[in-house]
Amino acid sequence: MMTPKMKEDICAQILRASRQLFLSARISEVCQEKGTQKQLEFVLELMNGELTLRDENRRKRLIKRAGFPTYKTFEGYSYQNVKFPPAFSREELEALEFVPGQKNLVLYGPVGVGKTHMAIAAGVKACNLGYKTKFYTVTELVLKLAEARKNGTLERLLRDLRSLDLLILDEWGYVPVDKDGSQLLFRVISDSYESKSLILTTNLEFSKWGGIFTDDQMAAAMIDRLVHHGHLLIFEGKSYRMEHALMRRDA
Fold first, then answer.
1. How far is the C-alpha of 64 from the C-alpha of 11, rounded, in Å?
2. CA-CA distance, 195 to 103, in Å (whole number)?
């Protein structure tokens, strides 16, 4: 038999679920007045099921909109080539503790050592936690920004970028960026400062950024904004792709 305390607890859970589903509090009131134990349990089960379904669908939408080139997670990821700074740990990375604090990660090292895998895994985890995330290669983003400016939609694109919780920029510095592209990219970095988290993957040390972005002062300003609230993770070792290449095995 359901005690008054049990009924009160179930009705309180129904009220919380109603609020999450944007339903009237009248549902909880009716349950309190007229509901039997089985009826209340059924209503609560139905609401919790709908909340779970909505949450799953939202995660799927976030992952789809993020634009990841492939799906990666931290499961089975090897950290043997990764050096973490003293103030940042693997546990903090996998828990995405840097995102609520709008902190940045710069993943630095040669090609093929797992930087992009880590960045995507963090992005997928962010989506699963409900954070709005977007993945671009730097070249892709610069082209998209230039096209938006040409079409008169640049402010809309920048507004969409500002609404993100996490922006991932892959292959930073792999391809030189012209002056106009550098200015557009600098605006994205400036808009992100203390408002969202960034993850950059790069094989280029900070001292060489000026040569890629055509302007030493602009590059220095980018670095200043990135490192002020950021962590540098250093990757070492040989390229995984080269070590496991089919051509290499055939040879």
1. 36
2. 9
pLDDT value at residue 177: 80
Residue 8, token pair as written in the block? 């009160």
Report pLDDT for 95: 96
Residues of the chain below pLDDT 50: 241-242, 244-249, 251
pTM (predicted TM-score):
0.82
Task: Check if the beta carbon of residue 113 is closer than 8 Å to that of residue 236.
Answer: yes
Contacts of 164 (CB under 8 A, 6+ apart): 132, 133, 134, 196
> How far apart are alpha carbons 222 and 188 in whole angstroms?
10
pLDDT of residue 246: 44
